[in-house]
Each structure stands twice: as structure tokens, then as C-alpha cells.
Write a structure and sequence with these properties.
The complex is a heterodimer of chains A (about 325) and B (about 325). Helix content of chain A is about 35%, strand content about 20%. Chain A has about 325 residues and is an alpha/beta fold. Chain A has two domains: about 240 residues, Rossmann fold (3-Layer(aba) Sandwich), CATH 3.40.50; about 50 residues, no CATH class. In chain A, the strands form two sheets. In chain A, strands 6-7-8-3-9-10 form a six-stranded mixed sheet, sandwiched between helices. Chain B is mostly helical. Helix content of chain B is about 75%, strand content about 0%. In chain B, a hairpin with a 2-residue loop joins β1 and β2. In chain B, α5 runs antiparallel to α10. The longest helix of chain B has about 35 residues. The two termini of chain B are about 20 Å apart. The chains are: A alpha/beta (about 325), B mainly alpha (about 325). Chains A and B meet through α2, α4 and α7 of A and α9 and α10 of B. Chain B: This is Peptide/nickel transport system permease protein. Chain B: Keywords: Cell membrane, Membrane, Transmembrane, Transmembrane helix, Transport. Chain B: InterPro entries: BPD_transp_1_N (IPR045621), MetI-like (IPR000515), MetI-like_sf (IPR035906).
Chain lengths: ~325, ~325
């Protein structure tokens, strides 16, 4: 089956006075229709930057410096702004982290929904209102008909994130990029939102890129997972396989640091050190200074390419 | 909502009383009107008689009370200089000032917002940077200097526009308007620009900085991510969210436009209330000065009330009767 989205050797660069930074460095992955791909990594690993590049919302001076992005086989990374605008919302929807700030505080939510629907589906205002109502009902807003003219501040955080999801999905996109959709929510609401996102995308056959730093969310929702480190893909594969038998030492560290995997020990496990800053990415494999298995080759050879799902010279679970 | 308006009205009355008191007590120090009103050949008896006639021999609280008594009935006394009721004089002069203030306010708001939005959206562009640099001139040059420069260029050198007066006016009821004649409209141009330039640049710089702030907001990114057109994003989503602070400043500045019309009216010999006030100060014409100051404070208080009500219209979060989830 043709992938909905293909990212090929994507490079994002930010020129600065102190040289060119690469927050995304040769990232490649495919996304099948209806698939949920989790993207995990620490802050600054390039997770969100990849998502922004796909939807064409990189903040200048960040820009795509190499590679291709294909949506249903068509290149979209080099489209003119006006064509790209028609893809945003229509083909690719986006859900942001903080529902408290993602909605315009001065417009009723019904207006925000219907303007999106009118923009992409070319229907009349009254039809757009009807679709907006249906969208709100679908995301589980109680008494949706009465809430069309409510303002964002009249909703709780969880309800607002439901509205945001309705907005992202109201023009029936084939791909949704959810950038930390539960990070700003109460723990009790997080599971509901993830379940909602999962259900809606299954019903509509929408593919999802679920960006998060929460391994628990990934385990809960994703079909496949991509682990990012310092702008590069460290490991990618089916969730079950990656979480139970990680091949990259970094993934192993991440999985090991999940509280559930600490088996009642007094201290949680952690990966020593911190992720390098973009200005000081070590030569060789970017993870080598923190890697328990690092050898000379990791420090001197150019960075390893992804092979069998992991970008490591000495993947775990294989005789060295 | 109604309770709020009534409370605000009550506050406004107190503000007006205080302004009146301050203004009135100031007049005791600006000079003795009697000196101006009587010629060189006055006798002590003349002076005493005039003082009694004007009520100036009475204690200060009594004078203030009498002034207030008249003021609420629309009677501001008789001008010492012109010997006519102040209310009539101001009614004659007000249209000139209000028309001038209206045109310069319109100029300041429309151009200020348009340029502010433009410079915010194209903040890297050459044109935006040129406008921003030029706007510094508008903010820093004093009004009278701008007026004189404009007169020099457009009246003296180019001879396109008149340098003083209102041109021909037409009476519409009791209102003398300059909008209906070519010379009246031509005469409005230079004074309006002079009066509104500072406000225009101020509004523009404010709109720009607020826009830059709002354009970074998440809901603007989200609006873009939903594929809305640039125009919808910039105007429906971004500009609206800049309006609350902009309206605050704009409201105060509109008051300032009328109050500070004095300088512009002096430079252009514009026959409005500002010029009337300056002449009244020179002549220690207390009734005219008092009426003018009261008028200006009524104006400021009214504008502030309107601004507060506009907040409610723009920002739903302030509406107390809103339902909450």
C-alpha cells in the first residue's frame, strides 16, 4: 500500500551567527494509511521540528535544507506558499500541545470550526455550521448545539483539547500531526484524549504522527515508534518490538527509565549526562559520550545509518 | 452591565467635580480680570463695583458653588471679554474644533492601524523599515514644528493649501461645517495632519508591537496550521487580539487630540475652542476658561467610559454574564 507520508533524508537547518545548526539531520520514515507513528525523544531532539517541517510551518530562519517530503506520492516540501496553505488543514491537520493557547480567545468555537470548514470544503455557511456541530459531537462535547457559540474560556482544558482535535480533523485530513497533545493536560484527562484521538483516526482512516516525550503514551497509542536523538533517528520499529527488545542503547536507556520498568527499586534508572546542544554535537555517533557500549568506532567513524531499525554500530541483542 | 454603567457615571461625576475645583482654584492665580476689563482711568470705586457685579468679592466656595449651579443648567456665565454668554460662544466655536478633531482622529486611527499591521506583517521588508524610521520623526517632533514645516512646504513653497483659517463654511442648522466646500476641505488637510501625526505614529507603533506579540501566539500558529488564508489570519485572528490595548491608548489619544488642538489651532489660526481658550487665558476670562476645562474633562470621562464598554464588546472573557464550563 502506498504510504500516506514519506519523509526522505529530511534535513532542517537554522543559520545562525555561530554557524549552521541542524535540528533535523537526515530523518527518513514512511507512514501507512491509518497508522499511528509515535515520535519520542528528549526536548530538542527534533521531534516537533520534523512535524513542523512536514506541515510547512517552520519558523524562519529554520528551513528545509535537504531531502523530500511526499504526501500520497506527491512532493510537498517545495510547494509555493499558497498551494501549501491548501494542504494544511485539508490534507494534514495539526494538534498543538497547549489547548489553553491554541484557540483564539475572541472567537466562538463554532466560528473557528466553520471558518476552517468553509475554507477547505467550499460549503455554505449554514452547512459549515452543521458540520461544525457534527464535529463537536464526534469529539464528545456534551450539549454541543448549545456550545457552538461558546468562547474557548468557557471550556475546561480537556474540553478545549477536544475542540482542538475537532478543528484539526474537521476537513477530513489524511494525516494528523499531534505535537505533545496531552502534555499540558491533567493526568486524568490524558488517557481520554489519547483514546479519543485513536478512535477518531481509526474511524476516519487518518494516519497520525504522535510527537511526545512520554513513553507511556506511545505504548498506549502508537503502532510504530521512532526514537529521535540530537536530530537523528536512533531507532524505528513496531512499538511492541522496540519497547520489549530495544536495539539502540539510547532506546534501551529510555525504556529503562520508565517508572514501570524500575521494578520497585528505590531510584529510577536514568541515562547519564544530557543530550548535546545543537552547537556541540559530538563527532561519530551523537550518543557516544552517554553510551555504555561506546567503542572507538562510535567515536571516530561517521555516524551509523539505520540498519534493521536501529542506527548503531553495535546494536543490542546481537553478538558483537 | 447596567449597574456597571451607573457606577461608572457616578465616578465620572466625582471626577468632574474635582476637575472643576482644581480648575477653579487655579484661576485665582492667573491674574486679576478686573485689570484687563477697566481702562487706565479707573477709580477704586469702579474696581469695587465691577468686583461686586462679577461676584468676585464673594468667598471662594460661594463662587465655586454658583459656578456649579449654573454649569448643570448649561449656563457658564458671561465672557468678561466679549460680554456674551460663554455657552453661546463655545457653541459657535465647537464645530470647528470637533471637525478638525474628527478628521485628524480618523487620519490617525485608519492610517495608524493600517501602517501598524503592514509593518508587523512585513517586518523584514524595506518599506516597513523605512516607515518605522520615519515614524520616529512623527513621535519626536513637536506639533507646532510639524505645522510650521507643513505650512512652509505646502502653503509657501507649493501654494497648494491654505496656511490658516477654515476656508468657506456652510451653516447646517446651528452647525457651521467646512466639509461641504472645497476650500473648507482644503483648509482641513494641513491642520488635521499636524494634529493627528503624533497620534498616528503612536497608534502605528503600538499596533505593530502588539501584532508582533500576537503573531507569535499559539492560536495564530494553529490558524495557519488549519490552512486559513493569510488575510483571515492577520485580520480576523491577529488584529482583533491586538485591539484591547490599542483601544485604550487610542481612546485617550482622541481626548488628547481635542484637548491639544490648542497648539494646532494657534499655528493655523483655526477658529475653534482651543484658540478661544488661549485668548481667554491672555485676558483672564475666567468663565470661558472654566467652561473649556469642564468641557474637556466631560469629553475625557465620556471617552473613557466608551473605551471600557468597548472592552466588553471585543473581549468575551470580560463579560460577567458568560456561562462557564
Amino acid at each position: 500500500m502506498e504510504p500516506v507520508l514519506s519523509v526522505r533524508d529530511l534535513v532542517v537547518e537554522i543559520p545562525t551567527r555561530h554557524g549552521v545548526l541542524r535540528p533535523v539531520d537526515h530523518v527518513s520514515y514512511d507512514l501507512a494509511p491509518g497508522e499511528i507513528l509515535g515520535v519520542v525523544g528528549e526536548s530538542g531532539a527534533g521531534k516537533s521540528m520534523t512535524g513542523n517541517a512536514v506541515i510547512g510551518l517552520l519558523d524562519r530562519p529554520a528551513h528545509i535544507a535537504g531531502g523530500e517530503i511526499l504526501l500520497k506520492g506527491q512532493r510537498i516540501d517545495n510547494l509555493p506558499r499558497s498551494r501549501m496553505r491548501r494542504i494544511r488543514g485539508k490534507e494534514i491537520g495539526m494538534v498543538f500541545q497547549d489547548p489553553l493557547t491554541s484557540l483564539n480567545p475572541l472567537l466562538p468555537i463554532g466560528d473557528q470550526l466553520s471558518e476552517t470548514i468553509e475554507t477547505h470544503l467550499g460549503v455554505s455557511h449554514s452547512q459549515a455550521r452543521r458540520r461544525a456541530l457534527a464535529a463537536l459531537e464526534e469529539v464528545g462535547i456534551p450539549a454541543a448545539a448549545d456550545r457552538l457559540d461558546s468562547y474557548p474560556h468557557e471550556f475546561s482544558g480537556g474540553m478545549r483539547q477536544r475542540v482542538v482535535i475537532a478543528l484539526a480533523l474537521c476537513a477530513e485530513p489524511s494525516l494528523v500531526i499531534a505535537d505533545e497533545p496531552t502534555t499540558a493536560l491533567d493526568v486524568s484527562v490524558q488517557a481520554q484524549i489519547i483514546a479519543l484521538l485513536k478512535r477518531l483516526c481509526r474511524d476516519h482512516g487518518t494516519s497520525v504522527i504522535l510527537v511526545t516525550h512520554d513513553m507511556g503514551v506511545i505504548a498506549e497509542a502508537a503502532d510504530r515508534v521512532a526514537v529521535m536523538y540530537a536530530g537523528q533517528l536512533a531507532e524505528i520499529g513496531p512499538v511492541q518490538k522496540v519497547l520489549t527488545t530495544p536495539r539502540h542503547p539510547y532506546t534501551d536507556g529510555l525504556v529503562g527509565s520508565m517508572p514501570a520498568n524500575s521494578h520497585g527499586q528505590a531510584r529510577l534508572r536514568q541515562i547519564p549526562g544530557t543530550m548535546p546542544r545543537l552547537t556541540a554535537i559530538p563527532s561519530g555517533c551523537a550518543f557516544n559520550p552517554r553510551c555504555p557500549q561506546a567503542q572507538d568506532r562510535c567515536r571516530h567513524d561517521p555516524r551509523p545509518q539505520i540498519e534493521n531499525g536501529a542506527a548503531c554500530w553495535f546494536p543490542l541483542g546481537e553478538p558483537a | 452591565m447596567l449597574a456597571y454603567i451607573i457606577r461608572r457615571m457616578f465616578q465620572s461625576v466625582i471626577v468632574l467635580l474635582v476637575v472643576g475645583l482644581v480648575a477653579f482654584s487655579m484661576f485665582r492665580f492667573v491674574g486679576d480680570p478686573v485689570d484687563n476689563m477697566l481702562g487706565q482711568e479707573r477709580t477704586q470705586a469702579d474696581i469695587e463695583r465691577l468686583r461686586t457685579d462679577l461676584g468676585l468679592d464673594q468667598p471662594f466656595p460661594v463662587q465655586y458653588f454658583k459656578f456649579l449651579q449654573g454649569a448643570v443648567q448649561g449656563n457658564f456665565g458671561v465672557s468678561y471679554r466679549q460680554g456674551r454668554p460663554v455657552a453661546t460662544i463655545i457653541a459657535e466655536r465647537a464645530p470647528a474644533t470637533l471637525e478638525l478633531a474628527f478628521v485628524s482622529g480618523l487620519f490617525a486611527i485608519s492610517l495608524g492601524i493600517a501602517l501598524g499591521v503592514f509593518t508587523a506583517i512585513r517586518r523584514q521588508g524595506v518599506a516597513a523599515n523605512v516607515i518605522m524610521t520615519l515614524s520616529l520623526i512623527g513621535v519626536s517632533l513637536p506639533t507646532f514644528l510639524i505645522g510650521i514645516l507643513l505650512i512652509y512646504v505646502f502653503s509657501v513653497e507649493l501654494d497648494w493649501l491654505p496656511s490658516f483659517g477654515r476656508g468657506d463654511t456652510v451653516m447646517v442648522g446651528n452647525w457651521s461645517t467646512g466639509f461641504l466646500t472645497t476650500s473648507g476641505i482644503k483648509a482641513l488637510i494641513l491642520p488635521s495632519i499636524t494634529l493627528g501625526l503624533y497620534q498616528m505614529t503612536l497608534i502605528m507603533r503600538l499596533v505593530r508591537s502588539e501584532m508582533l506579540e500576537v503573531l507569535r501566539a499559539d492560536y495564530i500558529r494553529f490558524a495557519r496550521a488549519r490552512g486559513l488564508s493569510e488575510r483571515t489570519v492577520n485580520f480576523r485572528h491577529a488584529l482583533r487580539n491586538t485591539l484591547v490595548p490599542v483601544i485604550t491608548v487610542t481612546g485617550l489619544q482622541l481626548g488628547a487630540i481635542i484637548a491639544f488642538a490648542i497648539i494646532t489651532e494657534t499655528v493655523f489660526q483655526w477658529p475653534g475652542v482651543g484658540l478661544l481658550f488661549i485668548n481667554a487665558v491672555q485676558f483672564v476670562d475666567i468663565p470661558v476658561m472654566a467652561a473649556y476645562l469642564m468641557l474637556i474633562s466631560v469629553l475625557f470621562v465620556t471617552i473613557n467610559l466608551i473605551v471600557d464598554l468597548l472592552y466588553y464588546a471585543i473581549d468575551p472573557r470580560l463579560r460577567v454574564d458568560g456561562r462557564t464550563a
